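Write out the bound-state structure for adenosine monophosphate.
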Amino acid sequence: MDSRIFHFYNTLTRQKEIFKPLVKDQAGIYTCGPTVYHYAHIGNMRTYIAEDTLVRALKYFGYKVTRVMNITDVGHLTSDSDTGEDKMELGARREGKSAWDIAKFYTEAFFKDYKALNCVMPDVTCPATEYIKEMVALVSALEAKGLTYSIGDGVYFDTARLPDYGKLAGKGHVEGIREGARVEVNAEKRNPADFALWKISAPGEQRQMEWASPWGKGFPGWHLECSAMAMKHLGETIDIHCGGEDHVAVHHTNEIAQSEGATGKPFSNYWMHIRFLVTGDAGKMSKSAGEFLTLPVLQEKGYDPLAYRHFCFCAHYRKQLEFSWEAIDASQKSLGGLRAIVTRLKEEAAAQAPAPRKDLEYLPDGRPTFWKHFEEALADDLNMSLVLAGIWGALHSNYSAAEKLAFVREADSVLGLDLDRAPAQEAMPAGVAELIAERETARKAKDFKRSDELRMALLEKGVSIEDTPKGTKWKLVRG
Ligand code: AMP
Ligand code: ZN
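---
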């Protein structure tokens, strides 16, 4: 297979497929965004890093990507089905703020982490509360097709009316829901799998977020926002829809039901799902359980956010990934190692003319063969651990510094690890700057005795120095 033909696992067809976009060389991608009632945990960020890698890989392969991400700022209930409290109202009560302030605060916190992880901003970010009109129109369209019914607390989707309901998750799963195994059963629903499109505010309930609708004052069901916004921004059929693995069973299944029920067309041609990050002792990460690791916690402990990005590349996105401090330490070291090599390559490349060597292999277009390995691994369902291994292999190869440097820079347009950044300078211990300045003065005055004394004084502080044409360089001496 051509190393540049991108293929990946499609949850819908349960196999790896060549990506064939609706419009040549373009890709429309919808990714489910955060529910902004709390900080995002590093598990959530695994999913966003994988989605960012997909976007970057498609761009590398020449696609013009339009990526849409929603912000769930209303309607996501604590049970993921149609019971429980709206997570936004819960967050507002927890912090004594308005639901709107909670949404604003946690949206900003999310994008701060998102950017620190070098994730490219989506082309469109859309908060659900700004698309109520589109959501009401979608419910009306479903109603006109006879796919809905009303009960005491709202308008529901009648899943029995859609013959292929549940095709994303597979047949056995839907039967499980129909038997009431997966979601809490509301006795008034015709089928346990039926889900709310519009929930009516309970009598006497004063919700902070509610809107008028043909069915009464209330708020949209969680699944509705993604169908309405995806179709609004990307059209009735989209190329790729992504999210974490938890969304297959209910959220994405119901998005398909709503969109395909309304349009009669396929909603998304490809579905990509990212397996969960788990913590060894705590099981899966969960915002609702309260205790979870966030990116700022890692940063406070001295980790580069991109060490977490690197850590995510160590396992395939379709395999569960277990977080451990040993593993993130190893990633922090590898990242530093890669940056140090790139720094050295820059110096070498400046001094060395890039001439292809007769004893090395080149591709027909003149590039070293490691490019092919990189592209093959990337095009094969984003095999990032193989990509990383290939980069180490390339850096340790006999090709010229300039050839390696050109490659690693281009590869980093997909990895997003800032490999061109100089390795982190260690913090200078107190008093060292003064001693170095005093020694430079002594050397200028040719007082070499004093200069040696100062070198010893610096060593006692754990700092060794080197005199270079550009001035004194220092480094910490490890014991
Ligand atoms: P939420 O903010 O809960 O709506 O989730 C945002 C995204 O993170 C969704 O795509 C989820 O599927 C995903 N997600 C949630 N928990 C995890 C986890 N532990 N590991 C990876 N992705 C997750
Ligand atoms: Zn969604």
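---
The mean pLDDT is 90.
The pocket of adenosine monophosphate (ligand 1) is lined by residues 32, 34-35, 43-44, 46-47, 72, 243-244, 246-247, 274, 276-277, 284-285, 287 (CB under 6 Å).
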